[in-house]
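# step 3/5: fold
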Amino acid sequence: MNYKSAGVDLAASETAKRKIAELARRTHTPNVLHGPGLFGGFYQFPQHDYHVPVLVASTDGVGTKIKLACQLQSYRGLGWDIVNHCVNDLMVGGADPLFFLDYLAFGKLDPAVVTEVISGIAEACREAGCALLGGETAEMPGLYQAGEFDLAGTIVGVVEKSKIINGSAIAAGDVLLGIASSGLHTNGYSLARKIVAANSEIGVEVYRDDLGGTVGQALLRPHRSYQKVIAALRNHEGVHGFSHITGGGIVGNTKRLLRSPLGLAVDWQAWEWPPIFKLLQQYGGVTTEEMQQVFNLGIGLVIIVRPETVASVQEFLHAAGEHNWIIGEVTPASSHRRQGAEGS
């Protein structure tokens, strides 16, 4: 017996690792240190750029969107998904990304799939100015079936302590500005896949005019980055906070920024759901309340803005080509209870 007969192909692993190293080097900044015998990624901290630096870290996964990507044999977008999700989570707190590490776990390692996924990761890292510092590629037969894999990532960034965005400036009367998402991003796929699997009329290969492509293409659109929007507006007078809309929907994520006794009043009629969400609700018979809790419904980022600042922020967003809507406001708790709005 040998390792290959047990399901682990060391030669395939080495091929994949060489390709990963090549792709990663293209993302490296002068702060990345190289040398023989390094078992970890070494990053020289840009200490002279900060007075009181605070490191910020975030870890996430792509989730069951991977199963859809495997079904359609379309993998590169998954790399963009994991990097952009992590970058957004850093940026809403005021931090800038420094480096990223990935984790890929296979039942049977496929070097071609690895290359596609890591290519997407490297492209997204370069776009974000973030070094792909390292990671892990594992082959675990018996834990994952052949043709299946998992993808997760960890990002580390830095923010000046005095510039941390923690929601402390948010007050009743602040306005919620919603910025358009690119689709489902990386949340709600367990429900979405179940709906699609149960309805042949909206199978992944079905083309629909309202989607401008197939159902599968609409579902696989990568999680977009809000880095440029946040970087441009985080020091804008009257911008009090940012909420990255992931699992839990608009209310579940945005209320995390609020201090008691503030609440949220969301105007759910302020924007029109993109067609993919309408399709999922129609064919899945999903209640509107459930849709609001599971999906972003076309809003990937919420900016919390002082009322008198809204016009200037929207002027910038329109100039930047960002579709945006006023989707609600922050309320005092008594007003929240009276209006019956979402959030607390």
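# step 4/5: annotate
Residues 111-128 form the longest helix (18 residues).
# step 5/5: archive (pending)
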